Amino acid sequence: MAIxxxxxxxxxxxxxxxxxxxxxxxxxxxxxxxxxxAKNDPKSQVFDGDSALDDAESWQQANRNSRRGYxxxxxxxxxxx
Length: 81
Known about the structure:
By secondary structure, the protein is an alpha+beta fold. 20% of the residues lie in helices and 36% in strands. It is built from one helix and five strands. The chain has a five-stranded antiparallel sheet. Strand 2 and strand 3 (23-28) form a beta hairpin. It is globular.
């Protein structure tokens, strides 16, 4: 089983139908048609194998950590009247 992980926290189970150098063709369990997922997409990755779930969760956590601190609270200016 393969897992399509998205940076928003979604984990979608399915299988890889085909893999090319630039993309995966992924068939989700609950969809009729497969989707093409680009390997260079920063918001989506596909993981396959025995450690797919662990790898997907690690990727999501690393992705979340890299976005933290993008806009710090001291950068936000509020107007008080």
